[in-house]
Amino acid sequence: MKEQLTIVKVGGKIVEEDLSLQQLLNDFSKIDGHKLLVHGGGRSATALASKLGVESRMVNGRRITDEAMLEVVTMVYGGLVNKKIVAGLQAAGLNALGLTGADLNYMISDKRPVKEIDYGYVGDVKQVNAAILADLIQRGVVPVLAPLTHDAAGHLLNTNADTIAGEAAKALAAFFEVTLVYCFEKKGVLSNEDDDESVIPTLDPHSFSTYVASGVIQGGMIPKLENAFSALHSGVSKVVITRADAIHTSGGTIVML
Amino acid sequence: MKEQLTIVKVGGKIVEEDLSLQQLLNDFSKIDGHKLLVHGGGRSATALASKLGVESRMVNGRRITDEAMLEVVTMVYGGLVNKKIVAGLQAAGLNALGLTGADLNYMISDKRPVKEIDYGYVGDVKQVNAAILADLIQRGVVPVLAPLTHDAAGHLLNTNADTIAGEAAKALAAFFEVTLVYCFEKKGVLSNEDDDESVIPTLDPHSFSTYVASGVIQGGMIPKLENAFSALHSGVSKVVITRADAIHTSGGTIVML
């Protein structure tokens, strides 16, 4: 039987404020079994870009990444946020290892083709070399994945953290019984956006379609859930959408096929 | 018999300008056997600090690292410079892995005690966990070490890259036949600073003392050579001081006991 691996994706404010980061690291370290953390850092990137006079442009929630912005996100995601998390996890007794897709060549992307929009140095994941990650995890290492990949030709590429979590989960499902946990600021997917307690306990493709059709599920939650279903179709055992402070409990919305 | 490992330390302009970085990565990839790269990045850190209004203060060639400067060096050393090198080495066919001391807990430091000068978040190396590095190297991984360590209590510490190279070389000498190569802008240690061809072919502790007494060897070269002798005393097989474009040749100054 395969060993358990929990992949947690956190983003936004949680990892960018010292107090909430500390709480997250405590909660994360309480998860049983093998663990892997994927983080964002967009607010810090926007803040640094602004200080450096680099304009932040978003289209459909995705960051346009020109050369100057690529330097900013490489510094913030690969350096500041990633290393702060790694040092914090080490202090909590977890043997963390921070990675971009270029490190160990673990995730290769294609630069997104220019259609109506030129996203710049943004990567669409093409290949995950999961064996070397799996080997490290089996030896007790906790990978901490920054939202950066590479094209294997010398270029780093800005890549959505939800996507990285989903792709890593799929590829690692060959080696582990994978639970994928997407954290956001609510306790789960809500049936009533004005009621934080209205968590939908389980979602399958049919109920998902119904909620999308009725407008209950909308915006950024739609691609997140599409990632979730895609992960389940590719062998991931369980996907949970929950609040960061509940990652070591069984709360939240469970996505199933 | 132990396998060969070449540890190359590069700093300054070499890794911070795209053209010279590319040349370095080509030269580095030509080195036979196992390889490890240690890099600096001080000029980029000073440039970013300046843009952000963070004052750079140096004492005896060492950077005073307050909280704002620690963020700058974490971004520049751990992110920008390290990940650019890693992506470049991957493109050159080497399976690079960028690391700070916090990653895999491979190098632990003590925050430097405050005496006449408060260096701030600067680390003096206390412990190197070489086994996990050695294992990765034996499996074909090329570690790329940023000049950052941690205190194992959640804090990153700015640490001199020459020191990191020396300490890594000593600790890895238990596993490999280690050659340590310090690169700088000259072809080797010069007997006449006005003649770039006046490379001293070999230096031992006796000739080193003589050159220091006569003022031929001075400044930053003295701690570099002290690191070199210390490494040799701790089992490192060979130390070479040379120019970056000669790392895959046998040129430069060979330091011996």
Any overview of this molecule?
The structure is a homodimer. Chain A is an alpha/beta fold and about 260 residues long. Chain A has a single domain (about 5-255), classed as Carbamate kinase, CATH 3.40.1160. Chain A has helices at about 15, 20-30, 40-50, 65-90, 130-140, 160-170, 205-215, 220-235; strands at about 5-10, 35-40, 60, 60-65, 95-100, 105-110, 125-130, 140-145, 150, 155-160, 175-185, 200-205, 240-245, 255. In chain A, the strands form four sheets. An eight-stranded mixed β-sheet of chain A has the order 5-8-2-1-11-13-14-12, sandwiched between helices. The first copy, chain A, has a two-stranded antiparallel ribbon with strand order 3-4. In chain A, strands 6-7 form a two-stranded antiparallel ribbon. The interface between A and B is large, with 37 and 37 residues.
